[in-house]
Design brief:
Number of domains: 1
Distance between the termini: 42 Å
Order of helices and strands: HHHHHH
Number of strands: 0
Structural class: mainly alpha
Number of helices: 6
Helix content: over 70%
Largest sheet: none
Radius of gyration: 17 Å
Length: about 110
């Protein structure tokens, strides 16, 4: 079912949600969050604060869901690790321009910075 069909018909939206597994919904959202982070970290200047929030949220999804996320749980962990590396590189490059990236104690994405 396309997103266009869902937007125009409340019953179609309800059917889609009812017929879609939790794992599939979470996988879709995880992909959207990963894509958002990649796009915003590639900007000049990068959106470090936004990416930090999204990366931390992705990590929380993995921590909360664990192996219940299904066959792709290891892929999700790997994706978060890669995005964290991209974050670190973007933060370092941003720092080299003379600006300090945001850092909040305890945030997984910036603890490595």
């Amino acid at each position: 079912m396309s997103d266009d069909a869902i937007e125009g018909d409340p019953q179609s939206e309800l059917d889609y949600v009812r017929d879609t597994t939790a794992e599939a919904i979470l996988a879709n959202h995880f992909f959207v969050l990963a894509h958002w982070s990649a796009v915003h970290l590639a900007q000049t200047p990068p959106d470090l604060a936004g990416a930090q929030l999204v990366i931390d949220t992705m990590g929380a999804m993995i921590d909360a869901g664990g192996e219940r996320l299904g066959a792709n749980a290891a892929l999700y962990r790997s994706a978060v690790a890669e995005i964290q590396q991209v974050f670190v590189r973007a933060a370092q490059a941003h720092r080299e321009t003379g600006e300090t990236p945001p850092h909040h104690v305890g945030d997984a994405a910036t603890d490595a910075v």
